[in-house]
Amino acid sequence: MKDSIEKRIELAAPIERVWRALTDHEAFGEWFRVKLGGPFVVGQITTGEITYPGHEGIEWTSVTERMEAPRLFAFRWPHSDDPNADISSAPSTRVEFHLKPTTKGTHLTITESGFGSLPEERREEVICSNEKGWEIQAQNIKAFVEA
């Protein structure tokens, strides 16, 4: 069974614009469709509410792990049925956004890994759902930064 998802996309936008779209919580919220309560800060929890059609009202929780402007942004998010679960011990996956400047803009690689930490009975469902989700989100960020 695979333990990670990887999406690669070429964006016709400068790396600084892509970095802002990923790391500014309001810009991130626009293309990802989530209303976040505050900025991404390394070592801190960011909370909010999903606004994506069909998923409205689902809580967002993440812990920002790395912000190395303008090349790497990484966070961890829990996958628990218990909304009160302790994020530090809940099963989680890590999402990384790697940016590389190109002659035409920015190459973005999105990687989500750590699915092996999820309960076996939910793992395949989460991988399939997130695989589709990252396809959509890759197109969403493309439309956002190229507008």
Automatic annotation (TrEMBL):
Pfam families: AHSA1
Similarity annotation: Belongs to the AHA1 family.
Domain Activator of Hsp90 ATPase homologue 1/2-like C-terminal: 12-146
Protein name per Swiss-Prot or TrEMBL: Activator of Hsp90 ATPase homologue 1/2-like C-terminal domain-containing protein
Organism: Sinorhizobium americanum
InterPro entries reported for this sequence: ASHA1/2-like_C, START-like_dom_sf
